[in-house]
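I am still learning, so can you show me any protein sequence you like together with the matching structure tokens, please?
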Amino acid sequence: MVCYFGSRAVYRPGDGKFDVDDIDPFRCSHIIYSFAGLDDDNKIKVLDPLNDLCDNNGRCALDRFTRLKERNPSLVTLLAVGGRNERSARYSAMAADPAARKIFVDSAIELLKKHNFDGLDVDWEYPTQSGGAPADKASFVLLLSELKAALHASGMMLSAALSARRNIIDEAYDVPGVAQNLDLLNLMTYDFHGPWEPETQHHSALYGQPADTGANAYLNQDSAVNYWITQGMPAKKISQGVPLYGRCWTLSSSPNTGYYAPASQPGAPGPYTNQAGFLGYNEICESIHNNGWTVVNDPGRNEPYVYSIADNIWCSYEDQNSLQRKARYAENRGLAGLMVWSIDTDDFRGKCGHKFNLIKTLRETYPGRDIIPPITQDTPTITLFSTQSIICDSDIVGFIVAS
């Protein structure tokens, strides 16, 4: 159960504010602090020193994050570098230059050790795209190879958040090369659709629909998982991503409130995330409870959407039922597990049910078989199996034996 934590959530107002101390360290097996960035000198850099570091009366978020392992010693903590707001061209230039790669790798290891992380998550969005170069496809594998060697030598692991879109996969990734070097692939199987399109659609559907023709036929989780596997990524290395947020539209015609309804504008920003076309699950569930938004579960899709004529909004999102279905899919496919973006938009205050109810649902439905640990230097990799899980309202306790 991989949980990304968006550190900028600490700046959200009111009940949307989410800090490191709000993380329940027993909900997730791996938690990823997002994000660090890439500096002009090719070194990894802290993007928010006042929040991330202790220097100059900072808030020490990085150290508080890794100290969560004091409460749950089985927890694996990673630092993500990159993200959507980082410039792809900068990563392209670094990855193409052997000397620059070494500077980046050495600086990453130094930062991870300084703050007691268990590994690095690479979130370059995306090689060859948005100012990248065709050579990125090969350079990315070289970068991962050098990161893997340095991380494993220091007893740490390497993961990456990678695209689920077929056209990007073909252009950006040498899949066998990526597979050889990653310990874990966090597959971003969401944002297949959104308010950049002129009609409503589910942004993280598990399966396609007959009306999805052409390239749209590939914009679903099952298609993405299958494609990565057929291209050479072992299923046991894939963590299937699910969103803890909705993609939202402003409806153009109030009588039409279903799928493929005309919608020319993003939905209005929410009170916490303040982003047009985006609502955290916590914002959606509170609107359902407090504002009477209508929930629809289309029997042909098994994923929910919600709308409000009064607020002129339509959102596709995930609930307990849809996530149970996705978790069973991950288990049946023999995947490593599940990943969420992001823990800070779950119902972490428990206003609509149990705290962290969506993550709790995923973890209970697919408690997992293999635990992917940090690599121990100079020792063979040990696969761990969870033999029993006791699940309570507040904790998830796993008993682990080595096999």
